[in-house]
Design goal:
It is a single chain. This protein is an alpha/beta fold and 597 residues long. Helix content is 23%, strand content 22%. It has 14 helices and 29 strands. Strand 10, helix 3 (157-170) and strand 11 (175-178) form a beta-alpha-beta unit. The longest helix has 19 residues, at 473-491.
């Protein structure tokens, strides 16, 4: 139950247990925070047709909370709040704490019970970890455009439960990240401009259906990470904006109150707003058994409007620290990920040591440098090889996650494979090279749907991915490569166990930029891998490396089964060369060798 004092001091994580709609036997109790409202009513429709609404007046407490006990209002009924604000205007709002909402353009909330019993994942919840010393390879998904039915309609949560977990398990992922599922009015916002922060979007079904989807993922051994947006909210008048006729959740000044996306920025200096957002984050982790949250646009919290020149937003920084510390106390094994484009220090350091308390931070510097390099023609790559090697200088400063996300597949940026330099056929060996480099680079991994089979059309939320491309051998072979690479990642602990430790990574040779090559090793407690790369369009004969131990070839990106030019050998082993190791490398290729002393 909500602690009122904690709510008003910004320390509450369970505000949704009191505020919102809470059914009981024979009725529903409603509670609303609207301190400056003059009047408030619950308007209930027993059915969806808006023709038989019943009005229930709410009474106000001394601290600005409104309540109404409504007999015979049952789960499944539609409702909204009719609020006469401090400005004298009457506006209908959905419930800020509502656990379910109607499908847009209907903007009403739905009375919903939260005692779902669709989970059978006790063992999963008991044994899951934050994966710091375990594999973490995330498949980022937009639920409405991953796959669609033949008529172009969406799959429901229950239907996705039959398709998505098995697909991700087959192709070697460890976690699924779902782009924002909180209710939102505009499909083109992808869920990042929210109106129902506690309500799973009804586009894909019911809250109970989402529970079954998460449960199915856990049954397949897959974690689920949800996108969470505590920075801003949609402008739609039925949402949070001027809820009680004042700037309640948002800043009163539009200079700082309106974001670059045209939405309202949350006012994190207000304690009740902090309690709202913290309770929302806790809600998704608790009621939906989410294994983590990816916090969107963290740089816009750290700095005013995301601009370091405007200074640090100390109230928002305090909010992040308190939220992360509280969530880790409540959910010690949940993963908290910062999508942060800034160079703010200590994002993944513990709160008690002055950090922000995230478990991982997106390495957007690695992403930008790497993709910029892969766009360059071969003649420019030799002099720019530092773009690939620079990230090794700082990889251990934070717990980094390497993202090739939805943002890199839209808005004229081209998809990941399309970004590769050259013509259609030349892009595929470079794509294989890119993903091999990504997989052996220290840090956890994230990739967006469609990249695994080389989608070339930019992502469009209204269309499913171009699955028909798999009928073409070059795309089918690329997917075979991606799956083989994922399975190697899972198998060998050197690729994930010491991602942030100095003894987990070492250069073998990074002094031949003129050749467009480099080599590195990754070391775990039970395995070691040598990775050799050629980033230019010319073959490298007898690429000379220092003498190493016994080597067994695990993967060559140029194997014919992956779309390359040479057959996979039965087994290729080099037994402890006395002076040097000199593999041959095809143009745009990489090799992974198991290194045994």
């Amino acid at each position: 139950m909500m602690d009122v004092q904690r709510f008003f001091t910004g320390a509450e994580f369970d505000a949704g247990e009191y505020l919102g709609a809470h059914p009981y036997s024979g009725g529903t109790r409603f509670a609303l925070w609207a301190p400056s409202a003059r009047e408030a009513y619950v308007v209930v429709d027993p059915v969806a047709d808006c023709q038989k609404a019943d009005w229930y007046p709410m009474h106000r407490s001394a601290v600005g909370l409104w309540e109404a006990d409504c007999p015979e209002v049952l789960p499944g009924m539609y409702y909204k709040y009719h609020i006469v604000g401090a400005d004298g205007k009457a506006v209908d709002h959905c419930d800020p704490y509502g656990a379910a909402m109607a499908l847009r353009p209907d903007d009403r909330s739905i009375v919903c019970e939260l005692n779902w019993d669709d989970f059978s994942d006790d063992e999963w919840m008991r044994t899951r970890t934050r994966c710091l010393d375990k594999p973490l390879s995330i498949y980022e998904v937009h639920a409405g455009s991953w796959r669609q039915k033949p008529d172009g309609s969406w799959y429901t949560y229950d239907e996705l439960a039959e398709l998505l977990p098995s697909y991700c398990k087959k192709h070697g992922y460890t976690h699924i990240e779902l782009m924002p599922l909180a209710e939102h009015p505009f499909d083109g916002s992808w869920g990042y401009q929210t109106t129902g922060f506690f309500a799973p979007t009804s586009r894909y079904g019911t809250p109970a259906g989402l529970c079954r989807l998460v449960n199915a993922c856990h049954r397949h051994g897959l974690g689920v990470i949800l996108d969470f947006v505590p920075v801003h909210f949609a402008l739609d008048p039925y949402g949070l904006r001027r809820l009680d006729g004042t700037a309640l959740y948002e800043y009163p000044s539009e200079d700082i109150g309106i974001s670059e996306w045209g939405s309202c920025n949350f006012m994190h200096s207000r304690p009740e707003v902090r309690s709202f957002l913290q309770s929302c984050a806790n809600f998704w982790l608790r009621h939906y058994h989410a294994d983590g949250l990816r916090i969107d646009a963290v740089s816009r919290l750290l700095y005013w409007h995301g601009d370091p020149a405007r200074g640090v937003n100390s109230d928002a920084v305090t909010f992040l620290r308190n939220m992360n510390a509280g969530l880790h106390m409540l959910h010690p094994t949940a993963i908290l990920i910062a999508e942060d484009s800034s160079d703010y220090s200590g994002v993944t350091h513990p709160v008690e040591h002055g950090g922000l308390g995230f478990d991982y931070k997106w390495d957007l510097g690695w992403m930008n440098d790497t993709l910029d390099f892969m766009k360059k023609p071969p003649v420019q790559r030799r002099e720019n090889l530092h773009k690939l090697t620079f990230s090794m200088m700082y990889y251990s400063r934070e717990y980094y996650l390497l993202p090739l996300s939805h943002d890199e597949n839209v808005h004229g940026k081209a998809t990941i494979l399309q970004k590769m330099w050259g013509d259609y056929e030349t892009k595929f060996p470079q794509g294989r090279l890119l993903y091999t480099y990504m997989m052996v680079h220290p840090g956890k991994k994230l990739d967006f749907m469609g990249n695994e089979f080389g989608q070339l059309r930019e992502w469009d939320e209204s269309r499913q991915q171009d699955w028909e491309l798999l009928q073409y051998p070059i795309h089918d072979s690329f997917m075979a490569f991606r799956t083989a690479l994922q399975k190697l990642y899972l198998k060998y602990d050197c690729l994930w166990q010491r991602d942030y430790a100095p003894n987990g990574f070492a250069w073998v040779d990074c002094h031949h930029a003129a050749k467009g090559t480099f080599s590195l090793s990754r070391t775990g407690s039970s395995s070691r891998i040598l990775a050799v790369f050629n980033f230019i369009d010319e073959p490298v004969r007898h690429h000379t490396l220092p003498a190493v131990g016994k080597l067994t070839l695990l993967l060559d990106t140029n194997w014919a089964e992956f779309g390359g030019t040479v057959p996979r050998p039965q087994k290729k082993t080099v037994r402890k060369p006395k002076t040097h190791f000199a593999p041959d490398l095809a143009p745009y290729s990489a090799q992974l060798w198991l290194w045994e002393e």
